[in-house]
Amino acid sequence: MDTIQQSVDAFETLMAENQVNVFEELNRLSKGEIFVLTFLSRQNRPAIPSDISEAMHTSTARISAIMGALEKKGQIVREIDRLNRRNILVTITDTGVKRIEGFAAFMRNRLTAVLCEMGERDAEAFVRLFSRFHEIFKRMPGCPFEADQSPPDG
User: Fold this and answer.
1) What is the CATH classification number for the domain harbouring 120?
2) How many domains does the chain have?
């Protein structure tokens, strides 16, 4: 267990040190916009804001703010649903698709550069271990990020 605790401590330290550099920077750049655009591009059809809100686990007010920013940038269009005038349909535009494609290319290039610098042996080990980590993690019950999930006592 000492090795596991040391690994957890090292991982937490790494995340804390890099949180400002990586995660906050990505969040600052996209402010949730990348998630919304990705969601819409994968839907392959118009979506309603509540669907996006549910997928993102955030309020419809937050989604509305994100959509306002995306609409100003010409990356989405909002239209009243002709079949149900109470609904707003959100569709990604070609400009939004290009942004997602650019972001995906950036992330792929960054990942490739990191794995190349790691070297073949370490990169293979990383992918193998990360895949194993992911398999185990997704099997575990409960998710601390879900709103209705209570944190464990302790």
Assistant:
1) 1.10.10.10
2) 1
